[in-house]
Amino acid sequence: MRPSTLRTLKRAAELTRQNHFVEAVLLAEPVILSADEQEAGEIRRWLIDHTAELIQGGTRSCPHSRASDE
What we know:
The protein is mainly α. Helices cover about 75% and strands about 0% of the residues.
């Protein structure tokens, strides 16, 4: 994966953890859509590897999530 792609994914992940999902998607979408087949596979693996962290981080601090109601 290109270093610029990884930086973008990491920044989008940080935005997701800060509950700025729309901004995260707007940042990451062009990079994901422009990836060639090999890089797309690497992006997919990176996202799968970080899904739990992104979901947990996002729901833990989200004031509208069920997790915060407990």
